[in-house]
Amino acid sequence: MPLETRRPDPAVPATRVHVIDDDEAARNSLAFLFDAAGLDVVAHENADDFLAQPSDPGAGCLVTDVRMPGMSGLDLLAELRRRGDRLPVVLITGHGDVPMAVEAMKLGASDFVEKPFDDEAMLRIVRGALARGADVAAASIEQAEIAARLAALSPRERQVLDGLVAGHANKRIAFDLDISPRTVEIYRANVMAKMQAASLSDLVRMALIVERAG
């Protein structure tokens, strides 16, 4: 059953977070974390329960586990996008890998978080997702900033970035570009620094923001 929530003031940005996890302990832990931080929380046992609820005009963000019985977190994200729902979605997994992260970003995930995660880091991610979903002007500024960073990449750095966005591992990128894996690591580090990316998922997200804008 959904947790009881406070009614958010429509005059302020939405702060309601929907949490989906079939693990009751994990679900309650996340709900407690967000509630203690002053966010409105609604918890769901699975994706079907969430989709069965009436549309929530106060919703600001969705946090869901990837691997669940029935509809997975990725499947739910794809279904929301098919419906035209742009609700920011943060995916959580204990079995993350590069291809899964890339797929999540391409589907429009706000972020992709691997377990175990730090509570403060999770709060920063969720607040960032809320801000991105609530502030279209900020998103436009972000697009321009990311485009400027992309323009500062060298041709080889851009090739490495394209390989990462495609979900390729360093060895595959090295083979495709006929360079050593160590050289790919150096270019990858340069790309992360120039793009000011905090993680691979952040880098992929930024690249795809500009790609969609174009």
Can you tell me about this structure?
The protein has two domains: 16-134, Response regulator (Rossmann fold, 3-Layer(aba) Sandwich); 138-213, Orthogonal Bundle (Arc Repressor Mutant, subunit A), CATH 1.10.10. Mean pLDDT is 85; it is low at 1-13. It has 214 residues and is of the alpha/beta class. The protein has helices at 24-36, 47-52, 73-82, 98-106, 119-134, 136-151, 155-165, 170-177, 181-195, 200-213, and strands at 16-20, 40-44, 59-65, 89-93, 111-114. Helix 8 (170-177) packs across helix 9 (181-195). A five-stranded parallel β-sheet has the order 2-1-3-4-5, with helices on both faces. The protein contains ten helices and five strands. It is elongated, with a radius of gyration of 18 Å. The longest helix has 16 residues, at 119-134. Residues 16-130 form the Response regulatory domain. InterPro entries: CheY-like_superfamily, Sig_transdc_resp-reg_C-effctor, Sig_transdc_resp-reg_receiver, Tscrpt_reg_LuxR_C, WH-like_DNA-bd_sf.
